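Section 5: illustrative case.
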């Protein structure tokens, strides 16, 4: 890549993730996207999904992570663009990872099960997207089934998610009678052909709703479909690029991922409308994607992903400039230069060495324990990207050792696992306990397995009376000191060195917030 072509290369990147509730069809649609991008030849080759019975079996999980890592970041060319699709863990216990992955994308695709509508996991993930006004595409899936009334679904998106819904196409029937979709903007009917799920489907189309072919297709329902379209046009939002880019309006597509129908139409518009790499805020200044100097931040660390490699990979979003093999980077937090010769990427399901990467791309750095989530790398400038969230855990356990002599290893293990984001660890001010926090139960299993496997310590969990954690901030040092003294029994230092209030109950938290109006109790902190 010559220097001259960098702005062009950046402008054609489209970096996104899929948000959905489990079972809505994320894996299926991912596979069809890869098929359309020629990244795989036959559907059915994307693996790494957990079977229904394996949810708490860490060994299986690890094996699967070995496979699924090849699909953690998927790059493929489409329509003159380079698409980077970032996978997010399907299991809800890993939702923190998902949240952080959303800070590394420029847009998201929301997949909704048409029979179920907007489900709670989607609501949570949308709330995270809203923190940065991430533009959202919507795909209403499973049109080959009897789904809910499409108008109700649009209403639900608007009401529950607080975003305007602009249908781009409209389904013609559903379930067994599903005939295809009518594009409201191009006046083209795309005809549904069942049974083409594992291959690139033909695009059979009828031009014009007024055509004889359209009349023949709709038969006696022709007039009522015309009325329906009139109604939809009148009652729904028009697509506007600016409102979409501002995260206020979502274009909505109907289709069925399983039959690979409607996915291509969606992807065609996606690569046109979705934003090219956007700038990112650093504590010091705004960094724009077309700056020549290299910069990037780490949003995820994954350990032992591939059993044959047994290493830890730090996933970095390149924010500006270009990565070149062998380049020197400044590890800004440590103030140290590092030379990176072996960054990896995951093209078309293969883990390969990257020669070059530009803003919008994701590269994987081999991590030997010096990289943490949120770390910034540059070509010399001291920068710290902001906005990589750290969420208050929802479950807490006290951790104890079977062998008290191993407390050093335990500390070290927990420190590293918390830097990776696998768990959060809290050290109470007034005791020598160690409390771990997680977003989901499965995280605890992972932590004890890895403590045993990698740090040779056997840890036991005990219940602990903690309802939630809040990071404590106060601009007035004297008031903070006062609070620190009076509330010491409930205060801890987290893995990053931040003061944290561990509330025993919801009521207690509310009382404390009332009693200490100058103290800011925050449910998230930034790395
Ligand atoms: P994920 O949990 O969101 O990754 O969901 P999957 O892609 O694994 O899909 C969940 C289930 O829904 C699987 O059994 C899929 O075969 C099925 N599924 C996905 N898309 C469709 C579709 O368009 N129609 C139908 N009928 N089933 C689908």
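Designed sequence:
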């Amino acid at each position: 890549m010559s220097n001259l072509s960098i702005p062009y290369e950046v402008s054609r990147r489209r970096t996104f993730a899929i948000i959905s509730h489990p079972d809505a069809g994320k894996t299926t649609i991912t596979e069809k996207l890869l098929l359309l991008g020629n990244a795989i030849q036959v559907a059915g080759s994307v693996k790494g999904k957990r079977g229904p019975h394996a949810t708490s079996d860490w060994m299986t999980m690890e094996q699967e992570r070995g496979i699924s890592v090849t699909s953690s970041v998927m790059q493929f060319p489409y329509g003159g663009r380079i698409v980077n699709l970032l996978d997010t863990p399907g299991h809800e216990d890993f939702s923190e990872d998902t949240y952080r992955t959303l800070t590394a994308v420029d847009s998201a695709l929301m997949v909704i099960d048409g029979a179920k509508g907007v489900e709670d996991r989607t609501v949570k993930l949308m709330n995270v997207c809203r923190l940065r006004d991430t533009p959202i595409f919507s795909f209403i899936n499973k049109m080959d089934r009897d789904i809910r009334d499409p108008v109700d679904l649009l209403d639900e998106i608007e009401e529950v998610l607080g975003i305007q819904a602009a249908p781009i196409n409209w389904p013609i029937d559903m379930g067994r009678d599903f005939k295809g979709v009518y594009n409201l903007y191009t006046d083209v009917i795309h005809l549904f052909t069942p049974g083409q799920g594992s291959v690139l489907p033909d695009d059979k189309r009828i031009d014009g709703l007024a055509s004889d072919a359209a009349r023949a297709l709709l038969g006696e329902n022709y007039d009522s479909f015309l009325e329906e379209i009139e109604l939809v046009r009148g009652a729904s939002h028009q697509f506007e690029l600016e409102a979409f880019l501002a995260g206020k309006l979502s274009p909505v597509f109907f289709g069925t991922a399983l039959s690979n129908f409607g996915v291509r139409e969606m992807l065609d518009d996606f690569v046109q409308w979705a934003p090219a790499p956007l700038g990112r805020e650093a504590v010091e200044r705004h960094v724009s994607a077309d700056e020549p100097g290299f910069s990037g931040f780490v949003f995820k660390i994954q350990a032992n992903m591939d059993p044959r490699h047994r290493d830890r990979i730090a996933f970095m979003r390149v924010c500006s400039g270009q990565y070149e093999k062998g380049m020197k980077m400044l590890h800004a937090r440590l103030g140290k230069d590092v030379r990176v010769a072996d960054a990896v990427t995951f093209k078309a399901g293969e883990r390969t060495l990257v020669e070059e990467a530009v803003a919008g791309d994701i590269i994987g750095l081999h991590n030997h324990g010096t990289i943490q989530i949120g770390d910034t790398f540059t070509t010399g400038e001291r920068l710290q990207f902001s906005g990589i969230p750290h969420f208050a855990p929802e479950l807490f356990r006290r951790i104890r050792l079977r062998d008290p002599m191993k407390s050093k290893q335990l500390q070290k293990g927990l420190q590293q696992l918390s830097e990776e984001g696998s768990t959060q660890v809290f050290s109470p001010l007034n005791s020598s306990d160690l409390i771990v926090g997680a977003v989901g139960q499965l995280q605890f299993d992972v932590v004890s397995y890895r403590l045993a496997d990698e740090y040779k310590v056997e840890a036991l969990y005990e219940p602990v009376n903690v309802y939630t954690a809040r990071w404590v901030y106060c601009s007035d040092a004297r008031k903070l000191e006062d609070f620190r003294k009076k509330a010491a029994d409930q205060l801890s230092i987290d893995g990053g060195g931040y003061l944290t209030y561990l509330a025993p109950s919801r009521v207690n938290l509310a009382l404390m917030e009332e009693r200490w109006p100058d103290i800011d109790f925050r449910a998230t902190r930034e790395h």
